[in-house]
Each structure stands twice: as C-alpha cells, then as structure tokens.
Sequence to fold (322 residues):
Amino acid sequence: MNVKGIHHITAMTGDAAANFQFYTEVLGMRLVKKTVNQDDTTAYHLFYGDEKGNPGTELTFFDFPGVGPNVLGVGSISGTSLRVANDDALSYWVERFKEHGVKYSPVEDFAGRKVIFFEDPEGQQLTIVSDENNTGVKAGKPWEKSPVPVSYGITGLGPVLLTVRKPEFTLAALRILGFTEKERIPALTKGQEDIIVMQVGEGGSGAEVQIEPRSDLPVTSQGSGGVHHVAFRIEDKEELLAWAEILNQAGLPNSGFVERFYFRSLYFREPNGILFELATDGPGFATDEPLETLGESLSLPPFLENQRVSIEANLKSLHTKR
Fold:
C-alpha cells in the first residue's frame, strides 16, 4: 500500500468565467468536470486536466465570487507546476505567454529541470516544468481539441511547493505517507534555508513535493489566486480506509472516508496547517457523462441531484459548451 504521487491540486478563484477562459484558451487544458463544491453548493468546482482528467493531471478550482486576494505566507501551498513533454515545449510557452500577456520569467534551471515561472490572472504562482529527463510517474495525454498543439500541451501536475515555518513537522507527515528525501537545493529567497525535495512511489515530477522553509513571512491568508489543498493518489477505497487507521495511530485527526462520487477521499491537516487529501484513482469523470462532452454541462453526484433546481438557481451562469 503506497501513495502513488500527486492526484490533484485545488485552488481558489473569484471569477469562474475568467478562470475558464485562461485555463482552457490560454493554457489549453480541458475542462473535464463542471460541478459544485460539495461542502458549499453555492460555489462551482471546476476540474481541468488532460484528455480524460486522469489522476495526476487535475488542477481544480473553487469559485468564490468576491473573495479577497491570496496573501503569500507560511502554512501554504505556494507553487503549482504543470508538466510538458520536453525542453522544446518551453520555447513554445514563452512565445504563447508573450502573445497572451501572461506575466512570466525567462526559462531557468530549478530542482534539476528547466522551468518557466509564471502567474495566472489572479496571481496564482505557477510553473511550466519540462519532463525532458524525467522518469517516474507517467504523464497524461493532452486533449487533441485543445488550442495548444498536443506536442506542447500540458501533460499533468508536476512538483508542488509548500512554504512552512517549521519544516520538520511537514516532513514528518510526508514520511508517514511514504515520502523520502531526494535532495536539498538552494533557497529561492536569499538568506533562507535550503528547499527539501521529497518524493514518493515511482518518483519523478508527478510524485514530488518541495518544502520551502521561510522565517520571513506571516501566516498565509487564503483567497483568490491561492491554493486550498493538495491531494495524493491512492488505489482504492480499501486503501483509503487503511490510511485512516494509520493516520489515527499517528495522532493526525482526519475526516475519515468521504464520498466524492468521482473519487473517494480523506482529509487531514499536517502540523503546519496545510490541508492534505488522499484520493482514489477512480471511478473517474466519465462516470456520469460521455467522454466526448466532459465539462459541457453541470454535473452533480447522485446525492445532490434532488437539489439541482435550487443549486442551479444559486449559481451564476457559466457557459462551457464547446
């Protein structure tokens, strides 16, 4: 029984329509599910991914109109990376960012890979990371109907950056999940401690978490442009229930089993306050709509279907039909 890598990352937006435009038309990801936040059905939950929304490719967003901007600080998921096939793809993305007015930094080397640091329109800190020399967790396959050519398209989620004040606490939680230390690399900010790179399972960019110790920042205040939680891949419900017992024995309070319909989940906060999720690889997003039309209409899990009329009445219209 092992955590296999990163399953999905869930961030926050204050503008679902602008978010949809950027992630589908500029970044070329596929909207694979338009649903609601099951804990607050007045908010959309949008899932972007590869052609099928395979585990490890999903960048998702809760839509909270009017929410204030995210304030960078400790106790946060401060960097999300998106994989591309090779170094050649980075040249394409530089030109695309120029064309669309995206704020970005030149190609550079970071953690043994060539990367481009950039921001979305709400200031979320993102990275395009090359898989030129990557081994480990397999990447996804970009959607062939994307505005970005398949050869340059985003293939999944890469390393996640966590910014914390007390790294030893986060490291202990990751070790419970099976992560081991890969290396230490120089800090991104002068005068701070080295970044600790952890990996799990097959390793590679799809199974890597980077711990950034910072003593110069306040505690984060989550808002639009910030990340809500990171989810890690496990196989099935049986493993999920076993992980609940492991976390209980380790003294880490957790949600226990949670039915999300498209996958099954468990949530807990590591001691620095970052929300972790364990999520099963299945059943997947084609469970309740055809693969060809994923994300084009509002999908609700069966346990919310009887509330569809009231849920739709409380949501702002979001046109996603292609």
The first strand starts at residue 5 and ends at 13. The helical segments are 16-26, 87-100, 167-176, 237-249, 302-305, 308-313.
